[in-house]
Write a structure and sequence with these properties.
By secondary structure, the protein is α+β, with helices and mostly antiparallel strands. 25% of the residues lie in helices and 32% in strands. It has three domains: 51 residues, no CATH class; 74 residues, RRM (RNA recognition motif) domain (Alpha-Beta Plaits); 86 residues, Structural Genomics Hypothetical 15.5 Kd Protein In mrcA-pckA Intergenic Region, Chain A (Roll). It is globular, with a radius of gyration of 19 Å.
Amino acid sequence: MYFIQKNLTKFQNTHSSYFLDPKELRELQGKLKKSDYHIYYPYPDSEKNILYAGSIPEVLLYEIHSKISLRHQDILGTMYSLNIASELFGDVVLRENHYYVYILPLVQNYFEANFTKVKNSSVEVELVSLEILEDYTRSYEELEYIVSSNRIDTVISSICHSSRSMFAEMLHKKEIYLNYDLLKDSSYKLKDGDIFSIKRIGKFRYEGVLKNTKSNHSIIKILKYI
C-alpha cells in the first residue's frame, strides 16, 4: 500500500509514476479516473509501464555490452545488488544477443558509474535510441507438460522435476511469486494468463489446457520468458 501511495503522490506532483508492474499498475489505476492518465509503454507488450498525464515521461534505454552470454536474471541480479529499486528501471530485454535495460533519468549517473560487472565479467553500458526497441516483440519458449491437476504446486513440481516436498521448501523460502505477489496458497488453481516466477528457475505464463489424456491427466501449455 505504501508503494501505491508513493506513486500516487508522485503522479499528483510530477504527472508521472515510477515504473509499475501489472499488479501495481492496476492498483494505481484504481485510485484515479480513467480520464486522468495515459499509459506509457516502452514497447508494444512491455511488462513494466508508467502512468502519466500531459507530456510523455522521459525514459532512457541502455545497451549492455558483454563479452560473455548473459541471462535476464543475471542482469536483474546486478541491478538489485547495486540497490537500484525496481521502480527505477523497466524491462530487461534480450534481443538477438543484444542486452538492453530501460531506466529513469533519476538513476542515470549512478547506473553509468556502477553497472560495470555482471557475473564477475566486465561490461560496458551505452545510451541508445528508444527507437531500437519500438517494434520489439517478446519471445517465449513454449513448453508442454502432462499433469494431474492445474494446481500451482503440481505444475511447478513438473517444471522443476521435483517433489511436492521440494515445492513446499521453495514456498517456505519465499521463492515463488504468482501475479507479482508472494505465493501463499499452494493449492491455487492456475488460470489462463497467470504469471508466476520461481527463483533461479525463471518466469512463466500459464496458457491453459491443450487437451486431456485418456488417463484423466491434462496436457498444459506454459510459456517461459526468454
